[in-house]
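Issue 218. Parser rejects a valid record. Input:
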Amino acid sequence: MPTTTQILADRILERACGERCVEWAIGLLEDGYEQLPVCRLAAKLRPHNHFELASLRDQILDLLELAPKTDEEILTAYAGEILLEAAKGIRNRIEAITEVKDLCIVMDYLPTLYDFYSLYFAWEDLQYSTEQYHWAGATRSNIESLIDNRILEFLRTNETA
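Output the parser choked on:
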């Protein structure tokens, strides 16, 4: 089920509001939020109209009265959700760092996510070569443990775990 953080990240990244928004609204209904925009969004069937769904999404976000956060805070929290799934084995670690690397790029190389950018490219280089220049000391034999350790460090530092 999509989280509110994921929905906020999608809005920042200007991703289409579609089935994921509908699933999020269904989750809110299950959690007891029964306001009209939640009900309307949860009831939407395909094909989706992004503009209609985005309007309902924004109305719901206003109703939730979330504490104001910067785009950086929201995307860092979203990265934490992705990395937590990897740490729990719900998501493949390389898929997770690939997505976090992409967030880093979209946010003009956001410093809090930059290590995952470097680790991704170190890992990628090591798939085809024994040399890489993105992460000091990374080799084919230790890259996965370096990734795992950095994920855990990120989760501890950002209080996501």
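Fixed in the parser; the record now loads. Residues 80-157 form one domain.
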